[in-house]
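To illustrate the input format used throughout this study, we show a single complete record. The first block contains the structure-token representation of the backbone; no residue identities are included at this stage. The design step must infer an amino acid for every position from geometry alone.
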């Protein structure tokens, strides 16, 4: 780990110049530069003082950042079988409610619906994977068939309905955790 480089990065994130960091730690601008360029090693007390000014702790400073997960294998996905209620919910990314987007695949039995969604500031994308689906968005009704997509701001109450006797599958991707 390049400690000097990491100190420099934290300083820049805080929008501090070397001189400003030096003033706040009672060190010279030149000494801060030497630390950042690996020409000097601060004492433990000085190092901890620098970290305090930069708003971090030694444990956070030395913690290696986790690589973001990219691949979500089928075995890690979550399915809730609510078939007796008329639907099956499948989350391809099980912890997606912690992210900015939340994908969900819904399988609707024939002639059933999936809950009323309350208005939100979410962008919502729905893709009809199989069958047909009707979206009631406020006072408007939109009917989509396999291959059709719906995209809307969820500022009105809305509901998904399978108006046919056949099973329907849709993928929903929303920017808020309200599914």
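Output of the design step:
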């Amino acid at each position: 780990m390049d400690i000097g480089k990491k100190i420099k990065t934290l300083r820049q994130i805080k929008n501090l110049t070397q001189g400003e960091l030096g003033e706040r730690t009672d060190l010279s601008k030149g000494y801060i530069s030497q630390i950042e360029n690996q020409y000097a090693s601060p004492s433990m007390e000085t190092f901890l003082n620098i970290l305090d000014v930069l708003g971090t702790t030694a444990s956070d400073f030395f913690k290696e950042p986790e690589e973001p997960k990219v691949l979500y294998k089928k075995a890690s996905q979550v399915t809730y079988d609510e078939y007796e209620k008329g639907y099956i919910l499948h989350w391809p990314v099980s912890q997606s409610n912690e992210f900015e987007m939340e994908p969900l695949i819904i399988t609707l039995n024939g002639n059933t619906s999936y809950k009323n969604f309350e208005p939100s500031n979410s962008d919502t994308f729905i893709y009809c994977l199989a069958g047909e689906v009707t979206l009631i968005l406020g006072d408007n009704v939109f009917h989509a068939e396999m291959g059709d997509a719906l995209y809307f701001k969820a500022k009105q109450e809305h509901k998904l309905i399978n108006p046919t006797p056949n099973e329907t599958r849709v993928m929903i991707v929303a920017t808020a955790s309200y599914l």
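Structural context for interpreting the output: The chain has five helices and ten strands. The mean pLDDT is 92.
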